[in-house]
Amino acid sequence: MEFTTAGVVGAGVMGVGVAQNLAQTGHRVVLVDVSEEILDNARKELRSSLRAFAMFNRKAAVDPAEVFEKIEFTTDYELLAKADFVVENVTEEWAVKEKVYKELDRICRPEVVFAVNTSAISITRVGSVTSRPERVVGMHFMNPVPLKPMVEVIRGHHTTPETIDTARRFLAELGKECIVVEDVPGFVSNRVLMLTINEAVFLVQDGVAPPADVDRIFKTCFDHKMGPLETADLIGLDTILKSVEVLYESFNDSKYRPAPLLKKMVAAGLLGRKSGQGFHTYR
């Protein structure tokens, strides 16, 4: 196996999902975040996710204890020096990502590829704060990571064909395929999805229909598995708001202005599934 140890930066929902997928496919993982409290929550989330995965995927024969043992939870970024590939999953805020990548660039070996798990931030911009922009690539995983077979891979301005090939091989080891797209804000998936979700929030805000009916129309009329507001709850309304704000700032186009109701719900702590309450209730 070429990628023996993978670094995963950020132990939120996406980071835990990536770490789980890596460990389930035989990789050692260094999972880094900034506090023990966040890592404790990540351990709880991982145990819960592994139980659910084992319950609903009996043919996969996953041993939760064995998977858990392969993941090293730490606040020490220096341990990423042993990583053969790094997937970063921190919050969608440029100031945070910039600081993280300067640290990664200092610690990791020069040949290591950095994969930016982002829904909107420019891969080219991330590469510009490293000494290896040709080895920086976007890797937009979908939630829940272990169950989604496809990943949107984004080619930055300086990303080389060799780095794209490395990303393909890395994802193949995780049992995933990828679709490669160019580096524009929101790429393909979120440029469409965030606009759809934001407009669905405006529909609720304007009293056109309640959340359940908005979602039901998409599920019953278009055969979607989830409606746009259920999808927003799954991703997290705080993440949705940050992504819409990045699109608005990037394109200077009013069609991406965040719905005031979305801002209000985030300010109130109604973040979707992660908080137990969003457009729907999760108890």
UniProtKB/TrEMBL annotation:
InterPro entries, per database record: 3-OHacyl-CoA_DH, 3-OHacyl-CoA_DH_NAD-bd, 3HC_DH_C, 6-PGluconate_DH-like_C_sf, 6PGD_dom2, NAD(P)-bd_dom_sf
SUPFAM superfamilies with a match to the protein in the record: 6-phosphogluconate dehydrogenase C-terminal domain-like (SSF48179), NAD(P)-binding Rossmann-fold domains (SSF51735)
Record carries keyword Oxidoreductase: yes
Residues binding NAD(+): G10, A11, G12, V13, M14, G15, D33, E92, K97, S119, N143, K274
Marked site (Important for catalytic activity) residue numbers: H140
Gene3D superfamilies, per the entry: N-(1-d-carboxylethyl)-l-norvaline Dehydrogenase, domain 2, NAD(P)-binding Rossmann-like Domain
A GO BP annotation: fatty acid metabolic process
Domain 3-hydroxyacyl-CoA dehydrogenase NAD binding: residue ranges: 6-183
High-level lineage: Bacteria, Bacillati, Actinomycetota, Actinomycetes, Kitasatosporales
Family: Belongs to the 3-hydroxyacyl-CoA dehydrogenase family.
Molecular functions per Gene Ontology: NAD+ binding; oxidoreductase activity, acting on the CH-OH group of donors, NAD or NADP as acceptor
Pathway where it operates: Lipid metabolism; butanoate metabolism
Protein name: 3-hydroxybutyryl-CoA dehydrogenase
Keywords: NAD, Oxidoreductase
Domain 3-hydroxyacyl-CoA dehydrogenase C-terminal: start-end pairs: 186-282
Source organism of this protein record: Streptomyces subrutilus
